[in-house]
Amino acid sequence: MKTKNVNFKKYSSFKIGSEVSVCLLEDDFSDIDKYYLIGSCNNTLIGPNPPALMMLDKMYDYIKIENNTLKVGGATPSGKVASFCKRNNIANLEFLSHLPGKLGGLVYMNAGLKEFEIFNVLVDITTTEGTVKRENIEYGYRYTNLNKPILEASFSLEKGYDVNKVEMFKKMRSNQPSTPSAGSCFKNPKGDYAGRLIEAVGLKGLMKGHMCFSEEHANFLVNNGGGEFEDAMWLINEAKHRVQEEFDILLECEIIILETQH
Question: Which of 220, 130, 132, 136 is nearest to 183 (CA)?
Fold first, then answer.
């Protein structure tokens, strides 16, 4: 199996982690259960001792139109899909212009902005075990029950790329910090906002090493340069502890933490 050395301090959006040898998934699916599959690590915090990692090979980076269906490889970056849709006047995936990541990861977490999400236009996916139709997948807010690598996703094709939607999505993201982060740290609890709760317990802007919950948006854990995994974990655990104590709400991480427990 081919491997690739990945420096997570440069590769991940958090800019935290060391250089790790990552296996590349091509067309041999025999040993995949030994590995944790990663994408572009826009919502991932890599620890000093991550599990064995794997990513899709670049053979899964493609976009094509077949039988009036948009087919996209799992390793295709969201920006590439957004540009293709704009160029070909394809509607309903405009929000991808403001969601970083690779397609497999975006489908896996049913990524979106407000009510606009991947599963609204998804037809089916191809995994290492074959094709699965959308109606046979359990999904919800930033959630699916998928547990196999997503090699391809098919979307219904509708004409009418909407530049007004792109502007709307840009405004939605305007309050988000540009400092390195992994996006929203916690899922919003039902009927509330994680950012409000973090601010209410006094953690907004509190520095631990070079990490803090952003002054711009308290649910963004940001790296102000040279941030360490341990400091990020301290803040995550402190937020969970304080919010549970104050509001009896257990915050659930939206970011993925990859660290082998000893």
Answer: 220
